[in-house]
Structure formats: structure tokens, C-alpha cells
Amino acid sequence: MKKQEIFRSCHVYETFMPLQSNENMMVDTMEGLSALNYYQAVETGFFFEPANIRRVRDYCRQNNWELTMWATPTLLAENLNLSTLDAQLREKSVKRTIELLNYAIECGADKIGLPSGSDPGEGEREEAKKVFFDSMCRIADHLASDPEKQVLVEPLDRHAHKKQLIGPIREAVEWFAPLHQQCPNTFIHWDSAHEALGGIDLIESLRVAKPFLSQLHLCNAVTDPSHPMYGDWHMDMGQAPEFKSPGYMTPELGAAILKEIASWPVTDGCKATFVAVEMRSHMGDDMWHKEQTARRFLDRCLELAA
After folding, report:
1. Is the whole-model pTM more than 0.85?
2. Is residue 17, in this structure, part of any structural domain at all?
3. CATH number where 107 lies
4. What are phi and psi for residue 213, nearest 5 degrees?
5. Per-residue pLDDT for 1 more than 80?
6. Residue 157 — very low, low, confident or very high, per pLDDT cuts 50/70/90?
7. Count: domains in the chain
8. pLDDT recorded at residue 252
9. Which of 74, 161, 212, 217 is 20 to 30 Å from the Cα of 111, by its Cα?
10. Residue 1 lies inside a defined structural domain of this protein
């Protein structure tokens, strides 16, 4: 078994979200990230302009970055859903996702992250899981010729905020295990905030996801439903050195998560486990200060976990 390595990732899409409507500016951020000589991976949305596709590919090659591209923003913007029981809409969604895979391949992406879609409710949930399984198989098959490419599913909260189909971790892994057996290029992306919002012990949740874990987000959230900031808002971690915030996440908790993962071998089919601090910038924010805060928080977690 390969010894575990934890690689540092930057969630470019969230950190620089005010730029999302301008491909050129979003790609420009990669030049600044490159100068830091810190990250080993980046996570982005999709790029469609040929010049920007080339730039993304070149930055990733020059920096030896792993690239995860999240299809979620594009699919949501186009009102697409891979688990809908509307067969016509689902077919359209799968075909569009496969188109996106081709853009991702051009960018040199290593991983493509997909949303499960909204939870339709208890009466239709099991059927939605079945059709999402079928959608995932078709999408994963499109990448099966390249064993280095992965398709990711992120279990989200079902009842607190995002209300997605693939939610509580035990149920998610029960659904995911046969998918991975049939399509070994599928893996789980784990997010601490969704597990915390679901009231699940984070270390226990990690252990459940362990056989299929490829990467994760350390993400802060307020978990008290009576608080006005309750929910998955990709909130700040606070400022160094204390990193105090209204949320549940602390450097000590982040360190415990990373220490747990460091005690495992690398997941079969993965090079390492990648971790990003997920913090969202808003209009008017100093986005590079946001990036610096996320980086300092991750450094502190790694320091405490060592």
C-alpha cells in the first residue's frame, strides 16, 4: 500500500468567485497562485475559450498542479440535473456533462466533480438514486480509457441547506460502493461543513468515506439553526493567529481531520489526498487576502497535525 501524502489545493472558483463571469480574469489568478509556489493542486469551474483552455493547461503543467474542474456551476446555471426523473431532461443533462468532460480533457483536468441534484423527497428518492447511478456510469465510461482521470461525487447535506440527493454519509457510501465497483474511476469528495451541518461526527464520517476518498474541503459553517448565519455559506475561518469565527471549524479540528487521513494509506487509484480550504469571496472583498487567510489556516492545520 502506498504511504499517504496530503497535497495542498486552492479552490480557485470560490476564492475568486467575483471573477466567475470573466474567464480571462479567472485564469489570470493562476499566475498569482503560481508565484506563491505553495499549491500542488487547483480547483476551478469550466473554461470554454480556446486561449483560456491553453493557458489553464499550461499553468497546470508548469506548476505540476492536479486540476479538479467542478461542473456544478455550469449545470445549475443551465437548469440541468443528472438525477431528475424527467427522462428527457436527464438525457440532456448527461449529454451536456459529457460535452463538459471534453473541455476538461482539453484543459488537462485530472478530476471532474459532479452534483447529485436536489433531493426529490422520500417518495421518489430511491428512484432518483437509481437514475443518478445510471447517469454516473455513462459519464464515467466516457473517461474509462484514461485510468488517471477521476469522476467525483460530493455528498452534501440533505436537510440543512443544500438539500441534495446524495447526502448522509453512510447512505451515500452505501449507494456509492457498487458504483465504484462498476466504475473504478469514481471517487468521493468529502466536505467537512456538510457533515457538520448533518450533525455527524467528522472523524467517524471520514472513516465511513475512507475506501473511496480522493479529496476534501475544510469548510466552516454555523451549525446552530437559530443563528442568522446558519448553513453552508463557505464562510471565513477568521484571522490568524487565533482563527476565531462564529463557525464550528478551528485549526485544532482541521488538524484532527488531516491527522486521521495521514494515518491511512492512500486510497487505491489515487496519487495522494488533496485538501483545500473552501472560503468564498464576495463582491468588494480583497480576494487575495481571502486566499492568504485560507493558506494560513491550512498551514496551521498541517503544523498542528504534524
Report:
1. yes
2. yes
3. 3.20.20.150
4. -75, 125
5. no
6. confident
7. 1
8. 98
9. 161
10. no
